[in-house]
Each structure stands twice: as structure tokens, then as C-alpha cells.
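pipeline stage [seq->struct] | target=Phospholipase B-like | organism=Meloidogyne incognita | residues=358
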Amino acid sequence: MNKLKDLSEEKQEILQEENEGYDTDYTYKSVCFIDGKPIVVNNLDFALGRFRNAINISGWSYLEIETKGEYDPGFQAYAAGYIEGVLTQRVLHLHIQNTVKDYCKGYQNYCKKLMIFLNENMQYVKKKIDSAAKDNPYWQAVKMAYMQLTGIWHGYSSSKFNPSIQYEAHFVMLLNSNGDFYDLESKLNKTKDPADDITGGRCSGLIKVAPNNADLFISQVTMSGFQNMLRMLKLYKFGVDSILYPGHTSTFAGYPGVIYSSDDFALTSTGLAVIETTVKVWNISLYEATKTQGQILCWVRAVVANLLSRTPREWCQIFKRYNSGTYNNQWGILDYKRFTPEKPLPDSGLFYVLEQMP
């Protein structure tokens, strides 16, 4: 007998919240065409997602999203995002409350400048996406990133399924831009909170070869405050052209509503492992090079580089384009295709380091 059957809606909600974070099974959702219209249901058609909230068991929740290849890449990205927004609505709501909801509280002057910066930059991105050829993989990948992000926002806010890009600084946009804010706060002269870590750093990484080249280890460690404790392991598998988008599948340690790792720790279908640790910019005059035009925020470039690159060198070449000088990091990109256990390491191509500054 269903224990919830005779409870009021209010009591059901309370009981469900008490069990939250202890899921033992996955919840499934998918997007299908019914009578020619896309709708979120429980039967596989062109996008499927499953979610498990086990934060109170393992410290993590788990999300997997897969799309089918017969649809436009941007449409796939939006549908993937929409399902994510629906499936993770509760934990995403809590993450928003913990992080960006009150981000501007007490910092109105800074946030006014920040919103102007973000909106001007988004208008630049919109212009480039709208004018790019449909066979241009770089700008189609940028479009996919913004479509997926918009889908998450629409699914989370229970909006109508409407494949499009919403160019505005909504909460999901702010979550994805959080790393970029580290440097925009300095550029736009945000008053510092004495409780903040003056180094701005929160992570470290390690790459180590086992004795006799028996194995090759890569690790990334993130340290942060309790506001970032709602962690999520994600798997995205897009049914896009594997030649144009070799990194069509990726898995990473991340956060609710965020479409790249942000720590970062990511593995892609091309055999790449990508990590980073943040670099503090002490010479603030360098921020004069950070502008709203001709540049793309770090979170977008990270998504695009993971999606388009086959090798560490390609990753670096793609990521450095349209450098914004925000979320400045030292990146480490390792190619497991170039490693064979107990064999000599290759002379080149195995591991690249990229350091970004404005």
C-alpha cells in the first residue's frame, strides 16, 4: 500500500523532503514528439535523462542525459537542458538559494555594472551566432551551449518547451558564469568581503605516472564553502556528428544547473582528461584587456573546447580563441589515447598545459 495515499498534499511534500537526498533509484524523464509537439513524458524519443539524488548518502547527486542524432544539435542541446531543469528542479532551487540568489545583496553598484557587462557580451555572442554559417562547428558549439543553458532555465522554471536562446542574466546564467565573476569582481571594483579568500583559489591538481608506467593518474581537488556543497556528477551524451563534434560525450564533477565542471574535472569521448586550478591576477591593470566585445566567457569556451577537440593541442588552440581574461586558470589536458600501460611515454602529445591571463 502506498504510504502517501491518504496524506494531504502538504504532508506528502514534507515527507518527500525528509527523504530527499537518500534516493536509491533513478527518476527518468524524456522529451518526445506527440501529435507533432514536443512534450516531457516518460517514454524515450529524442532525449532521455535520469537523475538520482543521493547527496545524504554519498555527498553527490547523479545525472545522465542522452539525445538522439536525427535532430538539430541546438535542438538536442535545448532538450537535454530542459530535461535537466525538470529532473533536478529541487536540488537546483536549493543551489540557487545557496549561491546566486543574494549575490547582489549589498553590492548594487557593482551588480549594475556587472549586468551591463553580461548583457553587452551576450548581445555580441548573439550577433556572432546569428551571422555564423550553419556548417561552422565553432559557433554551432557556442549555440549549443547557450541552448542547453536556456533549456535548463526553462525546465527549472516550468516554462513552455520553446527551443531558443534566452539572452539574459537569469539565475542559471549566473551559476554558469560564477567562475568568470572571480575576475569580473576585480575588473568592476566590487568591494571585497573580508571573509573571502584573498587568493581567490579553491583547487589543486595532480598528474602522476605509476612506477614502470603501469598506470597514469589524474586528480583534481576542490575546496570551497558550504554554499557549494550540493555536488553533482554528470554525463552528457549528444547524438551529434562525431566528426564535427568528437567530444559529443563527456562526464564531469559539477554542480546543479552548470553545464561544465567549473572545478574543473572532465573526461571526454576523445580520451581527454581536463583539469584546472585557478590563477590569481595580482596586476589589476591587465583587466583593461577584458571587454564585452570580441570575447567569450570562460565557461562557454570550456564547453566548446571539450566538444570540438581531439587532442590536448587542439583543446588549447580552441580554448584560447576569444579569450575573455576571466576565470583565469592553469589547465592540464591529458590524452589517454597516447598512453599504453607499461610502455614508454610518447615524446609529445600526451599532456599539455595552458595558462590564461587577460
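stage status: PASS
auto-comment: The chain has a mean pLDDT of 90. Residues 250 and 268 are 4 Å apart (CA to CA).
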